Amino acid sequence: MSGEAAYCDWVAVDWGTTRLRAWAMRGGSVAAEAVSDKGMNSLEKNEFEAALLQAVEPWLGQGRMRVFASGMVGARQGWAEAPYRAVPCPPLAGPGIAVETADPRLHVTILPGLKQAAPADVMRGEETQIAGYLYQNQGFDGVACLPGTHSKWAEVSAGEVVSFRTFMTGELYDFLAHASVLRHSVGEGWDAAAFEIALSDTLSRPESLGAKLFGIRAEGLLDGLPPAAATARLSGLLIGAELAAARPYWLGRDVVVIGAETVSARYIEALENQGVSAAYANSDEMTRAGLMRASEAFREAAE
Description:
- With 303 residues, this protein is α/β, with parallel strands linked by helices.
- The chain has helices at residues 48-56, 126-136, 169-179, 192-204, 209-223, 227-245, 247-250, 261-272, 283-302; strands at residues 10-15, 20-26, 29-36, 65-71, 85-86, 97-99, 106-110, 114-116, 121-123, 142-146, 151-157, 160-167, 255-259, 279-282.
- The protein contains nine helices and 14 strands.
- The strands form three sheets. It has a six-stranded mixed sheet, with helices on both faces. Strands 12-11-10-13-14 form a five-stranded mixed sheet, with helices on both faces. Strands 5-8-9 form a three-stranded mixed sheet, with no helix packed on it.
């Protein structure tokens, strides 16, 4: 399913920094999907409507189509700023903002992100995934881990996000693997044992991270450390440091990991090594579920 004409009654949009994903929704079911590389970073403010139309026009009829969007599209540099809502609050806190469009067939609502005053933190997009998980798992009380470029750990209780912390683990991995001296060491493949050892190293001694990172390069030069082992070790060191800092969130709590399958599996393995059994939820599915909840809330408010 990719951009073909399809009957739908509303459209769900996940609009990030580098990518736009849209789903033609028939109630709670996906009728069609469109993916574009026109993320926030590649667009000027006056280009967002055209980028959206390029993705969803095959789904539009004569009337106005409800479009619910979350993510960086609501950032200050996005289409229109959807102000952050302060935690503690429900993950979908407030009705969002309506965006003026030149095309009368579009009725676009952008959902707000969340902010935390102390320690200072923000999120956009992940709150929709949390809302989707709560929509499907009512009564959940625990912690949501959302791994990615900027990993989030969010404490959830009584239907609200109470607090959260962000870690730049994914961005650090990308930089170290592709722009630092370690680019000469990492490569294809995966060494599960190397991942587990590195994870344990920084979980127990996070202050050793800098030295352990350079050790990947040194061991490659002196002992021929295989690229698969170097890659797994880099991932293990960074995730271990993150888990060490996030220990107050996951220790003794119910945890769900919401993300892409591969990276989520590494976090789940890391948590299991610490005696924590974490549930898993796919991030795309949770985004759609969260946007569906927003769509339902809009209809309920209009009745």
